[in-house]
Amino acid sequence: MSTPQDILQSVFGYESFRAPQGEIIQTVIDGGDALVLMPTGGGKSLCYQIPALVRPGCGVVISPLIALMQDQVSALRQLGVRASFLNSTLDAATTREVEEQLQAGQLDLLYIAPERLTQERCLNLLERASISLFAIDEAHCVSQWGHDFRADYLQLSLLHQRFPDIPRIALTATADARTRQEITDRLDLGDAQKFTAGFDRPNIRYRIALKHNPRQQLLAFLRQEHPGDAGIVYCMSRNKTEEVSHWLGQQGIDALPYHAGLPAATRASHQARFLREEGIIIVATIAFGMGIDKPDVRFVAHLDMPKTVESYYQETGRAGRDGQAADAWMIYGLQDVIKLRQMMASSAGSEEHKRAEQHRLNAMLGLCEITSCRRQALLNYFDEALPEPCGNCDTCLEPVNTWDGTEAARMALSAVYRTGQRFGVNHLIEVLRGSDNDKIHQFDHHLLPTYGIGKQLDNNQWRSVFRQLVARAYLSVDLERFGALRLEEKCRGLLRGEDDIQLRRDPVKTRSGKQQTRTPLAADIDVALWEALRDCRRQLAEEQGVPPYVIFHDRTLQEMCTSLPRDPAQLGSITGVGERKLDKYGAQFLQVIREHAGVAQ
Ligand code: ADP
Ligand code: ZN
After folding, report:
1. Over the stretch 248-257, which tens digit does the pLDDT of each residue have?
2. Atom of ligand 1 nearest to the CA of 8
3. For residues 568 and 326, what is the distance between their CA atoms, to the nearest angstrom?
């Protein structure tokens, strides 16, 4: 019988296991249950695929992502694994065929949608077959609190009752303790071994910039840093996703909208194009993304701030699953802070619930305003310590200055107080800067002691001060009066002269040219060869109707460029080239490399 290590090399073409993979795999092979918490891109699939290949019988994978089953199965078949799926997209004849293959012991892996699995007919079928394990993917779907809740998942505890001797492995990238507990309880995994991989995604570069001209900022980011790359742009509203994708289209960029309000067929076709073609950008609400296991998403851009650090982590986590450099880029500004604060205050729910929401929003705002390493703060939020600053986030790469904002903050707070806590930021700045306009005179604000005391800061600087005061909850936003700012308890110390405050010095706007442009390719890569290899991959993918990454990942092609293999043995030692793919595609890729070498000489 093959060992897990043999299978890793011969089938998947990988050298060694990543941290907890080996242990998890051994646990399941030995017949034990496992609960696996691993970040996106951590390598969860191997944790059930390899045990399914080692243990006798067929591994059953329960996944809510019907739209992706076809691609998952294609990817496995490329490796020579006997995989199939059962869901509502199959016609009766194909369904019967798959069922017969299962009975006859001709399958290594079978993907099943949860609503199908829990039908009596399907359970009977499984009872008659030889099953090696049950893998419950996206296990956080049992959580009634998360937005991925699937009622069918609640019934999956019946697996334990009906198949007590078959090992179960539940997997998720969703992190918080409550969800973890729910998974354990609802899936009856009390005795399962728990495995947690760290949350860090070192290849993702976190960047959060100030919003001043969102569309132009996005366009500059796409053009300068990600020409031709696939990525996701998140927006808060459905309308906005359509407007932005339309506008990007006019700028000559391949962008498609995605939100829950689009017809199902449109959504499916946009998702399919994103997965199958190269360089498509999806402009989406949070309805897009769960389980999208496209490995080569090179960036995730946020035009609006997510409400929690958990969401930010989940959404940005869709970038760079293949481990290659990727960007998590976000812009935010005063209006976002005000809008989100208002939304929270007006949301339905108990006071306790609102407080919890405010608390989570504060953590997200804290991440935006922080002047030290973003990755340290992010990991710290998940109780994970990173001893040194990461060197791969904006605050590490371009350290942010702070300034003593105590005096300015006092002026701002006093302007709020003197005007009766009834005005929004724009008017408050007019007062501070001593503007002469009708509204000022209408309310006699030119007579206030705060009138004109803040001329030394310009409009943007004052906005920055107010933004930080709102973000740090010195000021709240009044619901009754649109955008009016009010003092919070926290101000007292500052106003009395007991506390002081350090503020972030926002970088000046015109810095787009200064960003280091990151090329996805190492400097020593020959671009012509790289393109030739991609062409070869694209052609093979089209012939078979599969996404290009199913043939080979970018990383594999890049290694071909650097190591220039001359024969099958050399090619076979490259990451991602297993025996089956070497057989199937080796000759063609070697030919491309050989031709290229000929030209280069
Ligand atoms: P997850 O489901 O946790 O998001 P995947 O299972 O899709 O992650 O794996 C992410 C990527 O990492 C895939 O491209 C996979 O082939 C690759 N990968 C997984 N394990 C290894 C390993 N041990 N060595 C090299 N690459 C790996
Ligand atoms: Zn950092």
Report:
1. 999 999 999 9
2. 23
3. 31
